[in-house]
Amino acid sequence: MDGMNQDVKAERKALIEEVLSAYPEKTAKKRARHLNVYDEGKPDCGVKSNIKSAPGVMTIRGCAYAGSKGVVFGPLKDMVHISHGPVGCGQYSWSQRRNYYTGTTGVDTFVTMQITSDFQERDIVFGGDKKLEKVIDEIHVMFPLNKGVSIQSECPVGLIGDDIEAVAKKKGKEHGKMVVPVRCEGFRGVSQSLGHHIANDAVRDWMLGKGKAKAKEFETTPYDVVVIGDYNIGGDAWASRILLEDMGLRVIGLWSGDATLAEIERGNKGKLNLIHCYRSMNYICRHMEEQYNIPWMEYNFFGPTQIARSLRAIAEKFDDKIKAGAERVIAKYEPMAQAVLAKYKPRLEGKKAMLYVGGLRPRHVADAYGDLGIDIIGTGYEFAHSDDYQRTADNIKDATLVYDDVTGYELEKFIDKLRPDLVGSGIKEKYSTQKMGVPFRQLHSWDYSGPYHGYDGFAVFARDMDMAINSPVWALNKAPWKAA
Amino acid sequence: MPQSALKIKDHIDLFNDPEYLEIFKRKREQFEDMPSDDEVAKQAAYINSMEYREKNFAREALVINPAKACQPVGVAYCAAGFEGTLAFTHGSLGCAAYFRSHLSRHFKEPSAMVCSAMTEDAAVFGGLNNMVEGLANAYALYKPKMIAVHTSCIAEVIGDDLNSFIIQSREKGSIPADFPVAFAHTPSFVGSHIVGYDNMMKSILSNFWEGKERKAGGSVNIIGGFDGYGVANAREIKDIISAMGADVTLLSDVSDIYDTPADGSYRMYDGGTPLEAVTKALDAKATISLQEWCSAKTLDFAKDKGQDVASFNYPMGLGATDEFLMKLSALTGKAIPESIAKDRGRLVDAIEDSLSWIHGKSFSIYGDPDFVMGMTRFVLELGGEPLHLLSTNGGNEWEAKMKALLASSPFGASGQVWKGKDLWHMRSLLATEPSDYLIGSSYGKYLEKDTGVPLIRIGFPIFDRHHHHRFPTMFYKGGLRVLVTILDKIFDTIDEKTKVTGISYDLTR
Questions:
Q1: Any residues with CB less than 8 A from the CB of B99 and at least 6 apart, and which?
Q2: pTM for the whole thing?
Q3: A431 and B134: CB-CB below 8 Å?
Q4: Does the annotation mark B78 as catalytic?
Q5: Cβ–Cβ of A88/B39 closer than 8 Å?
Q6: What does the longest C-alpha to C-alpha distance in chain B come to?
Q7: Which of A301, A228, A231, A322 is nearest to A268 (CA)?
Q8: Per residue in B124-134, pLDDT tens?
């Protein structure tokens, strides 16, 4: 440890203390366990995680429904996903994740539609099962080419004792199409995370290896892989698929960005499962490993360093043909990646960034920033578990400030004191940060840009970070007569 | 390879590249098991048919693409317009995250709000502890001058009693005994965001008015209602008040909080109706609302307190603004000054200049009930012909008033009123009986894509165009802005159409 880092660490620890001092004592104690300054060499980040948020502190987290409907199920394109309950949850999550897909919306695909049972008071009083049955019947009249229906439960459903599983079984039989009940009520768990898990369990129990695709003949090859946990935000999954196919692999399913039900049902036919967003879909990978002996591995398609490393690691699991394929792909794209770096690195080298995001990004994008010469000085997750913080230790540097389930208050203070050159977080954090004169990019929706995955995506990522940081407007936010 | 460092392609262009198109095709052929092209084409044609429309309108339970949000978004908006006020959701933690995101996406501004983070144990034992701890934390961290507590679904279903919880929180020292906490029960399975606005407005007024004696004075209170253009419309109201020299209190003024400057500091609170003014508002002679269906309970409450009340339906354009101004003048005893008469004349002038491009064109309109009514009335004044007028959260009274409005003008003869319907109903209407133009929120972009009817973006939310909320839509000046928005789309549409042959691609129009 050099002396400079010790000073930085001491400063950042003092900052944590300062922030904690604003809380009532009991809450300060709770929050203290979620904040730390990382010591290089330690096996994890030294913060507690996956714990209930304190009330009243302005947590940035979402709920289980957001994890299931918003993340895992929402992108699955040829099924109709019912936001089952009152109108709001479906309304606020309508078309916001930017899960791109091909298809004819309202005819054979339904991703950018808000389908809801729009509960009224009588549904709470008398129960919603009858209405749900009718909703499903009417879906089949309105959208006869749908491949199935999922029931995404909102809070009231679990509180009034509805039996959505019974409805699902009955209606599934009646219509001869899949109906998947998902118990993702927002009060379950402590964040989006349990919603992911519940959604994974629903895939396991109702979809995987079942349904119509099972009966169909499907020829497998030794090069079949299933990509798991890529939601095709701004086209991410396509910019990833292009590389995997180019190296000679056959992507027989991609979950769940631009996915069809058939791709989910056949998810157990691959030779290897490749997981990108570990947090949201590791559960189903573990299940397939136990049940079908399908190995799985994590990979990272953010930034040329990690992409090349991942392509080679994936190829290691296959024969020489695929290994040669990986080298060919890397050789094909590397000059473009180098040209992107040559263009942007000189403009970004030495800049400092802070991150606060969800599933995998607080660690996965760190090396992509590193490729551009940007240092990550603070990072944290909305809904990580301890295994995420262990993994993160590999991606961050000594003295990085780590904040779990950060509150609005803490993040604002951290940003204000550390004055990074860039913050990457979500829509709720974007505008307050920019008001403070700090450049910002949304790292959930890619700020309406993307893709960011793969080589094609890295070029866009580099361009976007540059335009955020190097916009002339940041130098103009003080009136000249006040600037002195 | 489609990508290059020289000219970086993002999602807008990248996926039109042949390499990607090939990937889509291969994926579809080998792995997707999608319906055949024939089946898709058949169904795509069928959903535009009258037969499908009938099935669509026979729906009883399924709701598809509704144009309404739930109560707490109205709460958050209403509370944000009061000095130093922090909205507090008593419910699951995802709710507040959604409300904040929704408002931020429209206003492109921060939207602060806390929640009591109820989880499964709170569902079983009740959320008292969450409230006690939550109020203490929110008070200590964010130093509000008032907290506006309201519920989301979970707290309503299990029957949490806000009043009792807040009293107990005070007793336990979470907040000082005299600290203002307004509270409203706002379940998402009742009404919509406009009802939430009303509930919170009433609860804030009750908080300051109950138990106090009213000394009737000469001032007037104005309630704006939930409004995606509330920033600029509030400024318009204030300009009008100041031009008239009237003594008026604007209750919930979001003109600062949803339009804070970027100058190096983040203002979690900014402007808003001063709390002192809210107390004094009890003594007002009258309370008038610019949006009837955003304020029914609040106006009843003001009436009970002895005030005169009146309501309008999103006054936009000439007739509706005339009525509003004359009412305001009558209530305050202040004359309408020449400067406002001039603004009126300028709007009339603009309409005369442009009438030939709008006269006889048909417009479908959707959105909140007051907005649809105000917009319809203005379209009638422009010589446009309202066609499908739809409000997901509009009820029987709205329907009756809309029909009366249409009957008041020969231009309203073909107007059809659709209460409680959603945008999938609107899709069928436009597919079978299209209007020339469609007016509504960003959700309408899917209707524009599917039916080819050009969308004029006026309403809430506007997610995919920037800064519209910074310009007014109400009164004469707002009418002018709306007129320009309509005209721009009409001219763009004509240019698009005529540039194919070049015939009628005129320089001057």
A1: A92, B72, B73, B75, B76, B89, B111, B113
A2: 0.98
A3: no
A4: no
A5: no
A6: 78
A7: A228
A8: 999 999 999 99
